[in-house]
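Async update (no meeting this week)

Hi team, since we skipped the sync, here's where things stand on the single-chain job. The sequence we agreed to prioritize is pasted below, unchanged from the tracker. I ran it this morning and attached the output directly underneath so nobody has to dig for it. Comments welcome in thread, and please keep replies under the output.
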Amino acid sequence: MATRDAFEDMAQEGRGDAGALALGLRHGVTRVGLRALAAKAVHVAAAAPERMVDIFDNAAAGWLGGAVFPPRTRLPDPLPITEGFWRNLWNIAAPAVGAGRQGYAQQMMEMAGELDPRINSRMAAAALALPGVAEATAGPIPGPFDVERLAQFPPASLGYALSQEILRPGSPAADAYWTSVIPYLRHMPAPLNHINVQVIQCMPLWGLVAGYSLRPLDRVAMGGFLMGQVGHHYSALASAVTLTAAAARRPDNIEVVLDCLFKGWTQGRETQLLLGVDWESLFHLRVDQARTALKVTAFDSPYAQAQRAMLM
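Output:
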């Protein structure tokens, strides 16, 4: 309990240099370093969303060998993290032995429901500060893609590939839970309503173009990508859970997990905003042609790396 109490204090205050933490982990992963980095991720997700860019830019630079910088001024003060949030976080990241199973998405939404209500306005302001988000979310929220129409495009096209991805098991765009949540997300304050609905509807499309699959490590990376692109708060919560669980269990592939998260974040920051792209003009192209048109470099997935290594 003392370790958890210390972790909760670190997450609430958000002190420390994310760049230095990640740089230290790059030279040697320790439980202490992992806990400190996870606490920074929880701080962003639950107490200070306006610090997302500062903390993740610096942590990614430290992990990937870029130039780190001192933490910027923290304004406004962090929101209090509630007991209900902590109870839910520990139930997801470090469940008790014999705990009953519940859907991950539902658990995450219940945890989000325990956040300080003032976080919505702070998340909205943080998202609007990202390049292009205000312009891309100014109009009405687009409806879901017409899968039957997309399936009429040539088999080698982006449109046809999207129709297959939407129907693939695990796709948020076809998941009953997420489609049931969309009507509630539409009532969130702008631009969160636009961002959250479009992430669910467009994740298969953005995954195709940016190079992400539905496999676990790619999901970690795409969470980083969505944060870097639109300040996606659910992805910030999921990343905080991933890092907290890693700090508790120290999995063998932790270096790959960190690499995926920070490379995904960096790709999201460096790629032009995919929200608001005129996709209709691109659906007839092959996926690689659409990437070229948008100047997108596909994420170098660890699964793709492993496949290349097997073929050598």
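Quick observations from my side:
The two ends are 49 Å apart (CA to CA).
The chain is about 60% helix and 0% strand.
Reply here if anything looks off.
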